[in-house]
Amino acid sequence: MQADWIWGLAGGLVIGLGGAVYLLGNGRIMGASGILGGLVDGSGRSTAGERLAFIAGLVLLPLLMTGLVPEKAATHVTSNAAVIIAAGLLVGAGTRVANGCTSGHGVCGISRLSLRGMVATVFYILAGGLTMAVLRHGLGVI
Amino acid sequence: MRVALSFVSGGLFGIGLYLSGMTDTRKVQGWLDVFGDWDPTLAFVMGGAILPMAIAWQLTRGRKPLAGGTFPAPPKHEIGHRLILGSVLFGMGWGLAGLCPGPAMASLSFGGWGGALFLIAMGAGMMAAPKLSLQLDRLAARA
User: A19, A54, B120, B138: which has the fewest C-beta neighbours closer than 10 Å?
Assistant: First the structure.
């Protein structure tokens, strides 16, 4: 458990490397919600190939990792279907309305000192923290 | 070239999310749970990821992307209602389930039915977003 922060830092560096490849290679900002969202709503049809390739890598390499480091394969997702559906709807709609999520606004935005990225990150962390406080400690729902 | 670079980038992103523990919803919710058993891991992940990205942004100066085209325009500084309200909605969902778009996709192969259901709902939310944005615009104009 003490090693969690080392794994976090190491994994974070690899995440940033992925973003650097996407930026320096393709000239684009690595934002998970934008890459997927452009496929879902059709706005990114002209770049569908590279979007699909990104998602293929994003899905397949972790699958490979489950064989190499199996102890990290647990997601502990809640078994409450209503909570999952509500959460998915909020995350999908919210990230597209805000035009970014943890990777686009967070990692890629903050690293170029984007005011929008920093403001978005403050608001989604505050909203997430408040949701945890109210629903876990207030109402005991999650 | 662009497709191959995208695959490599997505792969690195996925490996990083997996190793850092960000595909584990307990660690993400642990970061947001300041009144419970707070878990600082996410801050290390963010910090670790921002470092190479900051270097990459520096390297874009005076250069062109490897696969052609141009680099993104300098960041805009307008803070509108869409940015704020969208981020609040996103954060609420993030807290509820401990999943955001990257890890939700990265854990598809081992996340079980719950992870798959989340992805379907997230797709539906993304489809609803353009209409929701217009509604929020109307509300903001009235306020």
Answer: B138
How crowded is the C-beta side of B103, counted as CA atoms within 13 Å? Answer: 32
Domains in chain A, number? 1
Residue A132 lies inside a defined structural domain of this protein:
yes
What's the domain range around B49? Answer: 2-142
**ipTM, 2 decimals?**
0.96
Please report which helix (H) or strand (E) contains residue B14, including its range. Answer: helix B2-20
Q: Could B106 and A58 be called an inter-chain contact, meaning their C-beta atoms sit closer than 8 Å?
A: yes
Nearest to A27 by CA among B33, B101, B59: B59
Residue A4 resides in a domain: no
Please count the structural domains in chain B: 1
pLDDT above 80 (res A2): no
Partner B contacted by A133 (CB < 8 A): yes
Nearest to A8 among B20, B76, B124 (CB): B20
- Residue B69 has a CB neighbour count (10 Å cut-off) of 11
Model pLDDT for residues B63-74, shown as the tens digit of each residue: 999 999 999 999
Closest to B122 measured CA to CA, from A64, A39, A103: A39
**Is A91 contained in some domain?**
yes
Nearest chain B Cα distance for residue A50, angstroms: 4
Judging by beta carbons within 10 Å of its beta carbon (0-12, 13-18, 19+), is residue A63 exposed, middle or buried?
Answer: middle
Give pLDDT tens digits for A45-104. 999 999 999 999 999 999 999 999 999 999 999 999 999 999 999 999 999 999 999 999
Q: Residue A46 gets which letter from DSSP?
A: G
What's the DSSP call for residue A71?
A: G
DSSP secondary structure code for residue A73 in this structure:
-
